[in-house]
Amino acid sequence: MKGTQGILVAAVLAASAQGAQAETPLERGAYLMNSIVACGNCHTPQGPEGPLPGRELAGGTPFDEVPFTAYASNVTPDRATGIGEWTDEQIGTAIREGRRPDGSLIGPPMPVPFYRAMSDGDLAAITAYLRSVPPVSNEVPPSEYRIPLPASYGPPVGGVPDVPRDDRLRYGAYLASIGHCLECHTPMTPEGPDHARAGAGGMAFNGPWGVSVSANITQDPVTGLGTWTDEEIKTAITRGMRPDGTRLMPPMGFGYYANMTDDDLDALVAWVRTLAPVRHAVR
Ligand code: HEC
Ligand code: HEC
């Protein structure tokens, strides 16, 4: 993490150490965006050294898959090429319902189904953060979908209350949803994600790194994380390193997850422990 973003995160982490009560929406948004939510993992262009400086959330990263060639949008406040003209409500509808102000649907891999669980407070916090980043002029090509997009991602979301942070299990599941862990870690079938085997991994990701295959993060002791300690799971999530010292490949956003508070990491690991064991060897 570099420049002003790093300074902001440091200030936020110092503020959150003083207690959640003192947090402003912008501080909460900065914390979420630079840790578990990590929109920048898709929306900030990356070079070999990580996120490109001065280009936070400027978009353009291609996702070249069989069903689509999608380009992450410019979500900076630039008026001409970003979302600077959108109202807060329009930004919220785009994130939680996947619909743009012109009525068109935002396609995959934007994890809209997972963002439907986002609380009103966190949505407002993330919107405040989106408004605070410097506008970057960057025209992104339109995505191409070779599959039909659904008519919608579901009925209007309405209001979503905050999940109490001291309810560790529920809050951990909430963090896993807004962090869309299962989007990458659930086996894909021609009919869609195999929810009965949630967390069993096996999805392949192509990129400059070659091909990585998402891990089985269920509690299976042989092919999953059943025998890993909490510390080992945290090291994998925040530093991209397995217990045997080998490194994990992208696209998981380790650099962002490294900024999670200890409490949030504890809650996330408590959620990982609830994933029913599925025997499924992915490597
Ligand atoms: C896994 C990658 C991924 C993640 C994570 C992701 N997005 Fe996206 N997002 C995309 C892609 C790809 C598109 C373009 C889809 C299309 O062209 O239909 C997009 C489109 C958008 C748009 C529509 C912009 C426009 O001008 O049409 C908004 C707004 C947006 N994302 C905001 C966010 C926010 C805020 C987050 C985090 C809460 C986020 N995205 C997380 C991949 C992602
Ligand atoms: C954008 C896709 C993506 C997202 C989102 C993602 N992961 Fe991963 N994850 C991967 C891939 C791919 C690997 C395997 C990388 C490799 O083998 O080099 C992995 C590996 C792991 C591992 C290491 C397990 C092992 O056996 O090596 C753990 C633990 C893990 N992920 C947990 C999580 C959790 C918890 C979340 C949500 C906070 C999450 N992941 C979000 C793609 C993702």
Which blocks of ≥5 consecutive residues have pLDDT under 50?
Answer: none
Class based on secondary structure composition and strand pairing: alpha+beta
Ligands, ions, cofactors: heme C
Report on the biggest sheet.
3 strands, antiparallel
The share of residues in helices is 25-40%
Mean pLDDT: 93
- Tally of helical runs: 11
> What would the principal axes of the Cα set say about the shape?
globular
Identify the strand order in the major beta sheet.
3-4-5
Termini Cα gap: 31 Å
The tally of structural domains comes to: 2
Over the alpha carbons, how many angstroms does the gyration radius reach? Answer: 18 Å
Written as H for each helix and E for each strand, in order along the chain, the element string is HHHEEEEHHHEHHEEEEHHH
